[in-house]
Each structure stands twice: as C-alpha cells, then as structure tokens.
Amino acid sequence: MLGFLVQGAQLFIGLFQTGAATFISWMQTIVPVVLLLLVAMNSLIRLIGEDRVNRFASKAGGNPLMRYMVLPFVGSFLLANPMVHSLGRFMPERYKPSYFASAAFFCHTSNGIFPHINPGELFIWLGVAAGVQKLGLDAGPLAIRYLLVGLVLNFLCGWVTDLTTAIVMKQQGVILSKTVRTQDSSVMAMG
C-alpha cells in the first residue's frame, strides 16, 4: 500500500516537474518572441494612432469582404486576442455576431505565423509544428497555408453567420439595426 502512495506522489510531482521544464524551454524560445511582438504591435498602434485604427475599423465594417476578411486580419495582427473583438463596437448590431465569428476564427488560423495574436492557445500550433518537424519537414509552409486558408474560411464563417442571423431574426420577429453609433454619438449607415 505504501508503495502505491509513493508512486502516486512521484507521478504527481513529476507532472509539475515536466510542466516546469516545458515552461523554462518556452522562456528561452517562444515567450521572448511573443513579448517582443506584443511590444512592436502596441508601438505600431501608438505610432499610427488609436483614432486612425478606430476610423479604419469603422469604414471596414461597411463591406462584407472587409468586415469578415480584412478587419479580423488587421485587428488580430494589431490588437491580438481578445482585443480584436473590441473592434466589433464599430459594427451595427446586425453584423456583430458575424464579426465575432470571423475574428474568433482568425485568432486560431494565424497562430503559426503570428504567435502574438493568440498566445493562450499557442500550444496547439506548437504541437502540430512539433509533429511536422519530427517528420523532417519545415513548419513554415504549413503555417502560411493555414493562414491563407484561414482568411478564406474567416469570410465564409462571417457570411454563414450573417445568413443564420437573418434566419433567426425572421424566426424570432426581431430586427437588428444596420446603423452603428460611434463614441461621438454620430450615426453611420452600414451596407
């Protein structure tokens, strides 16, 4: 009986020792890269100006291609997850569910190229990349393909959510506004 307790304790502490070793390896590889990317992105936003970034987001909301492909890409790249969702404030109520769907999807499909976008789920990409590298292949081309396919699927995800939102609106007898109010209380009409 005592042998089982000792083995259980060893397995328990071994789990934490393995986690600590993994954490230290990340501190020497991916964590500094992610940290520097975050600093660079925040610096870029400050250089461009937050108002300009916000105006771009507001204009991008009027076109489905911009709303579900370009804006999630730019927002994810500049603001990362979960801040990319804050750009949804520029969407009319009618398009907020679709924008959220596209932005959330992009936070996954871009992790191979831009790890700063969604560092909380980086372990998924690192697992895939480790398997690809174990086969003797470069993970770079896979990351680029994942990003490109993700851009197309982001658009489809937003568009399909638009369609399902329209169905639910009709079914529930709800009308969601196609206008958006920005912080200065001006009203903008959206496509």
- Number of helical elements: 7
Determine the fraction of residues in helical runs and give it as a percent range.
over 70%
N-to-C span: 71 Å
Q: What's the total count of β strands?
A: 2
Order of helices and strands: HHHHHHHEE
Tell me what portion of residues adopts beta-strand conformation.
under 5%
- Large-scale geometry: globular
Specify the biggest β-sheet. Answer: 2 strands, antiparallel
Q: Give the mean pLDDT.
A: 83
Could you name the ranges where pLDDT drops below 50 across 5 or more consecutive residues?
183-191
What structural class results from the helix and strand content?
mainly alpha
> How large, in whole angstroms, is the Cα Rg?
21 Å
Largest sheet: spatial strand order: 1-2
Question: Can you put this structure into words, describing what you see?
Answer:
It comes from Cryobacterium breve. Pfam families: EII-GUT. By secondary structure, this protein is mainly alpha-helical. It contains 7 helices and 2 strands, in the order H-H-H-H-H-H-H-E-E. The chain has helices at 2-28, 30-48, 50-60, 64-79, 96-109, 122-134, 139-172, and strands at residues 179-181, 187-189. Strands 1-2 form a two-stranded antiparallel ribbon. Helix 2 packs across helix 3 (50-60) and helix 5 (96-109) runs antiparallel to helix 7 (139-172).
